[in-house]
Amino acid sequence: MLDELYKNAVVSITNNYVEGQASVPAIMIAKDVFAAMKKKGYHDARLIDATGKPKNKANVAKTDFEKKAVAEMQAGKAYYEEIAEVDGRPVLRAATVVPVVLKQCAVCHGKKEGTLLGAIVYELPIK
Asked: How far apart, in Å, do the first and last CA atoms of the chain sit?
């Protein structure tokens, strides 16, 4: 559900508001939403690069989970998950593929449609 929400929001924002490279990338708005969800304590989500040449160095995979997720996406998987513990509590860590899906994405990233750009990674508490 979260993946559909975020990805549809980015695509809708891009379709409606992003004209070219001079516009604010839709993912910047998604990052604001990611931060709001984390601040409320619902879950953590972030975008990570899978190209090896991130537009923003902050998007490099940092954790072992993120690095493994990028490797899985590069190997062709659309989804990767694990169950882990944070502060003694179980969490679901999930990653989903982010490919180039629109012409505007291809223009800014210099990649053709369908090319892997990265992943959205989620960490959700398990109750």
From this structure: 17
